[in-house]
Amino acid sequence: MSKKVVFLDIDGTILDHEKKIPESTKDAVNKLKERGVIVAIATGRAPFMFQDILAELDIDSYISFNGQYAVHQGKVVHENFYSAEQMEQLMEFSSKSSHPIIFQSVDEMRATVSDHPQIESGMNSLKKAYPDEDAEYYKKVPIFQALLFNEAHEQTYYEKNLEQFRFVRWHEYSCDVLPRIGSKAHGIEQFINELNIDWKDTYAFGDGLNDLEMIETVRYGIAMGNSVEELKKKAYLVTDHVDDDGLSKGLKRLKLID
Questions:
Q1: What keywords appear on the UniProt entry (predicted)?
Q2: Of 44, 140, 147, 250, which residue is least crowded by CB atoms under 10 Å?
Q3: 5-79+182-253, what's its fold?
């Protein structure tokens, strides 16, 4: 019999709006594991940005960088990083508009400039420190994701000129830069195929625009009550707000836990 697997977004799904894990979520994750359900994080964050969450929930499987890097029980099962040439193209266009970038590797991140207010705002929303500056970081290590800092109306410029990338907004001043085929769903597909899990036993919870493909790909896609409206329209069901035990309540509605 195929094992069930539940993929959980982090911000707005696992973490409440105080960036804390509700006790109901910890209890729900423990109950899932007791029932033999595989629990995996599925996030746009880089792995070094959520090691504390993995430890607190005792989880060792995840999809990170919006699908570009997948791990099952500590073993890498999928990775897709950018070439230096691809990052050069992004840099060329961003420099014309003085839009800063953060390059993310598995272990750390670096910014193209120091003391930029948009980067400061974005990092503050994640409760992360401003990265060190290194505009040539992409030449030194594999880069799995870039964060481009600009405003929403400026994103169209990149979409028209850099069709090899996808730009998915996660903050007022920032969007994730992904490969054209990049998404949490793509990473989940690699994960599912590696573990030979039946798609009828796949579940996912999310709240943001970068969760759209994931919600549509798994058999049961659940939108948190605090989700963007686009996600709610695509979801199998909409659970309660993250601050009102939404994850736990959703799992109970699915009869995955009591």
A1: Hydrolase
A2: 140
A3: Rossmann fold (3.40.50)
Nearest CA among 91, 102, 247, 65 for reference residue 162: 91
The pTM assigned to this predicted structure is 0.87
CATH architecture of 84-179: 2-Layer Sandwich (3.30)
Cα gap 136→2, rounded to integer Å: 45
H-only helix segments in the chain: 23-34, 51-57, 84-96, 117-125, 155-161, 184-195, 212-217, 229-234, 246-253
Name the segment(s) of the chain with CATH classification 3.30.1240.10: 84-179
| Residue 104 burial by Cβ neighbours in a 10 Å radius (0-12, 13-18, 19+) | buried
Rounded Cα–Cα distance for residues 93 and 168 (Å): 17
Run of H or E including 160? helix 155-161
Tokens 């707005």 belong to which residue? 12
Cα torsion through 74, 109, 21, 197, rounded to 10: -40
How crowded is the C-beta side of 231, counted as CA atoms within 13 Å?
26
Q: What is the pLDDT of residues 220-239, one digit of tens each?
A: 999 999 999 999 999 999 99
Residues 81, 181: Cα–Cα separation, whole Å: 12
Read off the pLDDT of residues 87-100 as tens digits, 9 standing for 90 and up. Answer: 999 999 999 999 99
